[in-house]
Amino acid sequence: MKKLIIFDLDGTLLNTIADLAQSTNHALRILGYPTHEEPAYKFMVGNGINKLFERALPEQERNETNILRVRKEFIPYYDLHNADKSMPYPGISQLLDTLQDKGYQIAVASNKYQSATTKLIKHYFPKIHFSAVLGQREGVPAKPDPSVIYEILSSTGKSKEDILYIGDSAVDMQTARNAGVTSCGVTWGFRPKRELEEFHPTYLVDRAEEILSIILQK
Question: Residues 130, 106: contact at Cβ < 8 Å?
């Protein structure tokens, strides 16, 4: 029986793609670069914002200097607008409430930068007590490196066998595999179902309600 449920954020708990697209396009526009349609961003996110900017830039402009230029324009704008259109996926708020009521520990492991991760969790789930809310931070490798999972394990005193890790992308499935924990892919996020299937998650669900059934298995 699982005791600690770790969630990815973007594409798993929250649909954040509209605000990410709007903010990245704002930064690109300011710098004179072409922008992208919102659906295209579903295949740019997942590895942290610097990788997002690299993918959003024209191929010949993808260098560290330009990535940092985009970042400089993106962050202040996104910090103001990251909750304009973002919202929890259907059933997520109820799932978190139920898990908390039943005494499970809940945590977040995201590749979104830390301050935005913290802000969004507090904004959308103010009544949920999370054992850890960890985003991308200086000196900590991004997922699929398992460091963030190990950090949560250490802070909660749980073992790998206690964990169910839930996410919407190949990055998440690789993270769970690298950490040696049980994985659950969700099909409502940013990536197609076939991408998740390629990594053979332990579980694959189409609705938030299905997660509770998995967790309650003896």
Answer: yes
DSSP classification of residue 15:
E
- Please name the residue ranges forming H helices in 2-156: 17-30, 49-56, 64-81, 92-101, 114-124, 147-156
17-81: CATH superfamily:
Putative phosphatase; domain 2 (1.10.150.240)
The residues near 92 (Cβ < 8 Å, ≥ 6 apart) are 13, 14, 208
Extract the tokens encoding 5.
């449920």
107 forms beta bridges with 6, 132
pTM beyond 0.85 = yes
If you ran DSSP here, which 8-state letter would residue 136 be given? E
| Secondary structure class of 181 (helix, strand, coil) | coil
- CA Rg, the chain, in Å? 17
Query: What would the pLDDT profile of 50-68 be if each residue is shown by its tens digit?
Result: 999 999 999 999 999 999 9
Residue among 81, 75, 90 nearest 15 (CA): 90
Query: Which CATH code for domain 4-15+87-215?
Result: 3.40.50.1000
